Amino acid sequence: MNEILAVIYYCFWRFGNEAIISTEYLESDVFFCFSNLMSEVKDGFLRDLDKEQNGIDGKCKQMLSVLQLVDEPVYRKLEHDKVNP
Fold it and tell me: HSE-up of 17 (CA within 13 Å, CB side)?
């Protein structure tokens, strides 16, 4: 999850060469956003829910369905190479 937090921190801290928000409260603002994001996506990180529709397996199946509609060649390549979600 530190990969997610690092991206949020970087996005808040830098925009080109300028800070986009006050750095005085940067840590608390980043923590607030990270906490809210994780509360929305927490089901994807719970091992007990992996096989459920809201778990990681369900989300991967949804992603493949969208990919099949949006980019058929990539979807076929993944299927051909047996890249499982």
Answer: 0
Integer Cα distance of 68 and 77 in angstroms: 11
What is the rounded average pLDDT of the residues 6-17? 76
For residues 6-23, average pLDDT: 73
Cα separation of 14 and 43, whole Å? 30
77 vs 26, residue with greater confidence: 77
Whether residue 30 contacts residue 12, with contact meaning beta carbons closer than 8 Å, is answered with yes
Measuring CA to CA, how many Å separate 71 from each of 6, 66, 74?
29, 8, 6
What is the distance between the alpha carbons of residues 70 and 60, in angstroms, rounded to a whole number?
A: 15
Give bridge partners of residue 18 from the DSSP assignment: 15
